[in-house]
Design brief:
Blueprint: E1 19-21, E2 38-41, E3 44-47, H1 48-62
Antiparallel strand pairs: 1-2, 2-3
Amino acid sequence: VLLPARRLGVLDTGYEAHVLLLRRNPLTDVSAYSMPAGLYTRGRWFDGEALSRLRAEAVAFTGPLARPAAP
């Protein structure tokens, strides 16, 4: 089965892109992923406030994620 060619890896007109904008360097602070400044996906921009609302709606719908017990 041949899949259609995808145009990924470049931020330019005519290409697909999913961009996660972080406020801190995730190489030195992995918690930077927990509160992104914004997300661009499927042609839409979600700022930090919109992402917080979406996260709250997801938690309200599914309940909080279970966290592993401390050793």
